TrEMBL record:
One of its GO terms (molecular function) is zinc ion binding. PROSITE patterns: LIM_DOMAIN_1, LIM_DOMAIN_2, PET. InterPro entries: PET_domain, PET_testin, Pk/Esn/Tes, Znf_LIM. The keyword Cell cycle does not apply. Keywords: Cytoplasm, LIM domain, Metal-binding, Repeat, Zinc. GO terms for cellular component: cytoplasm. SMART domains: LIM. The gene is lmcd1. This is LIM and cysteine-rich domains protein 1. The lineage of its organism: Eukaryota, Metazoa, Chordata, Craniata, Vertebrata. Residues 174-282 form the PET domain. It is found in: Cytoplasm.
Length: 428
């Protein structure tokens, strides 16, 4: 333990004075939890907390703080810093308690009150994702940009100018304007989709949206848009991709294991579905080859199937999910990892094979010939703590009689902290 403390102290030497102040401020804030909002900026800004609606703004702590070039911290040091802060995730105000109202408990929740280390609300016990609020696109796009970086899908993100390597998700929004004839003066109705498949004309994109149930259509200001944001937090938790957002990594060995794990799944497993018509897989494959500029492009080109010219047999147009026939004039979803010719899905069949939820923004993880969401792929490779919801990269952890896994220090009641081996008054 002494060696561990010395190592942590050495990390602090490299921090700027502003960042040291941030550490002191946030550690003090543990006694009075505050929210965090991230922005793609290269500076830190603070607001004094004068009422329940004010919050501490931490603007892009992960790598954008101004420090002396000769004293920049390594990724290990940044991760150690984030772990030491232990600040809860950002949920904006909205409920009676100053936080967002729970989407599951509705009015019975007094408002989101973050637990110190669980990803849940102290008031109602539901998850952070259940307290998602409309908006938050900037934070979501930054998180998605980080996920897609250094992967074959990096073309869906872009570097932020002056952001120190920060990448933002190039989220494709769609605005549909329809004329409404009212008496002599025509008017227009506008519908905005918070997200739509990239690379499509509006007609095909609208056909895709119409094939989704209304509850999943991300129209701005509707339950469908809120459900999309909820799924982003659930299927692609930030603490599954960035060690700096984890609170339970206790050694450099664990941090290193996570960094290597994330690097591997970005290179080998992560993908984003593409929408087209049945039989267009060959053309999509050609575009992927040109986009990635791989050295073996010529070899792939020699094996492009007849789908390139759309002449393949209609009987081959079957959904990989339900095995039903695919109409040639209806959009389908392709997954590059699965192969453009052999696999295509109805939009409603492009789901995680574990939870059966539609894959948000078509982000998938291809493993053992199956589609998975990020959450279920990650916990198929590493155990997930049932207490803090983070992946467990240490060797010593507990497994309950029900098969659930726990960090040793998190094997306790979420209300009183008593070990689960000793039933307490909160036990069901």
């Amino acid at each position: 333990m002494d060696k561990l403390r010395d190592k942590e102290q050495r990390q602090v030497v490299f921090l700027s004075e502003d960042l040291k102040s941030l550490c002191r401020l946030t550690r003090g804030a543990e006694r009075k939890p505050v929210g965090i909002t991230t922005r793609p900026s290269s500076y830190c800004s603070f607001k004094n907390r004068t009422n329940s609606n004010n919050s501490l703004d931490l603007l892009n702590l992960a790598g954008s703080v101004d420090v002396d070039e000769s004293k920049k911290t390594s990724r290990f040091q940044e991760a150690w810093l984030w772990r030491s802060l232990k600040v809860p995730m950002s949920i904006k105000a909205g409920g009676r308690g100053g936080g967002a109202t729970c989407l599951s408990c509705k009015e019975s929740c007094s408002g989101f009150q973050p637990h110190t280390w669980r990803k849940s609300c102290v008031a109602c016990g539901c998850s952070t994702a259940d307290h998602a609020t409309p908006g938050g696109h900037l934070e979501d796009d930054q998180r998605m940009g980080r996920l897609l970086a250094d992967s074959p899908c990096s073309h869906l993100s872009a570097k932020v100018k002056g952001g120190g390597g920060l990448r933002m998700y190039k989220r494709n929004r769609m605005i549909v304007t329809n004329p409404v004839v009212s008496r002599k003066d025509p008017t227009f109705s506008t519908t905005t989709y918070d997200w739509a498949p990239a690379g499509l004309n509006q007609k095909l994109a609208m056909q895709y949206m119409e094939l989704l149930p209304e509850s999943r259509r991300p129209v701005s200001g509707t339950p469908g848009a809120l459900e999309r944001r909820r799924q982003l937090l659930t299927q692609l938790p930030v603490y599954d991709q960035d060690p700096m957002k984890c609170q339970s990594l206790s050694s450099e060995e664990e941090i290193s294991s996570m960094i290597l794990f994330v690097k591997r799944y970005k290179e080998e497993v992560l993908g984003v579905g593409e929408v087209g018509l049945p039989g267009e897989g060959g053309a999509l494959r050609e575009a992927a080859i040109q986009r990635t500029a791989k050295e073996d492009a010529a070899q792939h080109q020699d094996h492009v199937p007849s789908a390139v010219n759309g002449t393949d047999d209609k009987t081959q147009h079957r959904c990989t999910g339900c095995h039903g026939e695919l109409a040639e004039d209806r959009p389908v979803v392709y997954a590059e990892r699965a192969g453009y010719h052999d696999a295509q899905w109805h939009p409603t069949c492009f789901v995680c094979s574990e939870c059966s939820q539609g894959l948000v923004d078509l982000v998938y993880f291809w493993s053992n010939q199956k589609l998975l969401c990020g959450r279920h792929y990650c916990q198929s490779a590493w155990p997930r703590c049932s207490g803090c919801d983070e992946l467990i990269f240490c060797k010593n952890f507990l497994t309950g009689t029900d098969g659930r896994t726990w960090h040793q220090e998190h094997y306790c009641c979420w209300k009183c902290g008593q070990s689960l081996d000793s039933p307490c008054q909160h036990s069901e």
